[in-house]
Design a protein that fits this description.
- The protein is an alpha+beta fold and 197 residues long.
- The chain has a single domain, classed as Pnp Oxidase, Chain A (Roll).
- Helix content is 17%, strand content 37%.
- It has a seven-stranded antiparallel sheet with strand order 3-2-6-9-10-5-4. It has a three-stranded antiparallel sheet with strand order 1-11-12, with no helix packed on it.
- Strand 2 and strand 3 form a beta hairpin.
- The two termini are 32 Å apart.
- The model has no long low-confidence stretch (mean pLDDT 94).
- Belongs to the flavoredoxin family.
- It holds the Pfam family Flavin_Reduct.
- It comes from Sporomusa silvacetica DSM 10669.
- This is Flavoredoxin.
Amino acid sequence: MKKSLGTKLFAMPSPVWVVGSYDANDQPNIMTVAWGGICCSAPPCIAISLRKSRLTYTNILQQKAFTINIPTVQHIAEADYIGLVSGKNTDKFGVTGLTPIRSDNVNAPYVNEFPLAFECKLLHAIEMGAHTQFIGQILGVKADEEILDSNGTPMASMINPLISSASDRSYYAFGEYLGQAYSHGLAFLDNHEGELN
């Protein structure tokens, strides 16, 4: 029997994403977020949730743009630090040695050292309570060539992205490869009538 834990924020795993933005003086800033995900396929959109007190919150509303950068496990210290301090009084790019590159699709910087970046135009800002959900339309994707397969698709195994767990406030790496999606469940179709999604 399951034990009731009440209302908790234990979704797992969560991404470790670094959000890039410019302030009103065109200074690049980055912050680490864990609350986000793909939210629409057409148009391709991604969503993140931020508190109003964050500099990135103000930057996104002013610039109507942001980037999502995917750090590798090799950048755990940088990603963690970026989430510890505020860009209101700290040059996070300067401290970490990371390089801001101006997006050619939106008015936001991406992180040169991270292997994958999504360039997003702000579509919606939805007030949820303590957080605001920003929904951005993906206008471009930047990827290091070494993380791409022969079809030009980014591979998680080549990126080795950080993931996190809210329940124990810990970072993790991806585990073993288990197989292709939409293949393991086919065994159930042999014995039951059903329509594929």
